[in-house]
Amino acid sequence: MDRICTARIITAFAATAALAVLPPAEAHASAVGSTPVATFDYQVGGLTMKVPTGCMFTHIVRGEGKNITYQNAGVDCGFVGALNAGFCNWRIDFTYADTDNKTYRTSRGKTHTECKINPMRDNAPQKLPRYGKACAHLSINGVRRVSQCHHITK
Q1: How far apart are CA 35 and CA 43, in angstroms?
Q2: What's the pTM value of the predicted model, to 2 decimals?
Q3: Interval 106-130: pLDDT, tens
Q4: Listed residue (74, 118, 76) closest to 92, CA to CA
């Protein structure tokens, strides 16, 4: 047993020494958040579409400080929500607001006329002029249905 303990201690010291010579990792910030999509009905070509419970709108932000290197938002549905016909006439927008909650930039997405069960959009990297928040918004038929935001701070 003493040999096993000694071997483990030596291995632990060797691993610590190896890590000590590696350069420090660059600090990055990321955030992932989901918001439930509330049940709603909407019209498409004279048909009433119903979005049931079970869908989540997820927004992902990666970057550091005021530099956003990756941003994505989309809908995932499970349970009963996965059985719906999808989201028609959908659009995902990204907005950026300062610490006073004043929106200063909007990246408006394309309106997609096709119905899709999992609408999703990536956004281009952003260099923000100030701290505040980054939000993603899902609109159906031009009506904002759900939003998800992340605070961008020092």
Answers
A1: 23
A2: 0.79
A3: 999 999 998 898 999 999 999 999 9
A4: 74
Residue 70's contacts (CB-CB under 8 Å, 6 or more residues apart) are 60, 61, 62, 63, 122, 125
Total domain count, the chain: 1
- Rounded CA separation 90/110 (Å): 8
Q: What range defines the domain where residue 133 resides?
A: 25-152
- Does some domain include residue 19? no
Let me know: does 87 contact 51? Beta carbons within 8 Å.
yes
Residue 5 within a domain? no
Structure tokens that stand for 145 in this block: 């249905």
Amino acid code (one letter) for 96: Y
Per-residue pLDDT of 89-109, as tens digits, reads: 999 999 999 999 999 999 999
Interatomic CA distance for residues 126 and 114, integer angstroms: 28
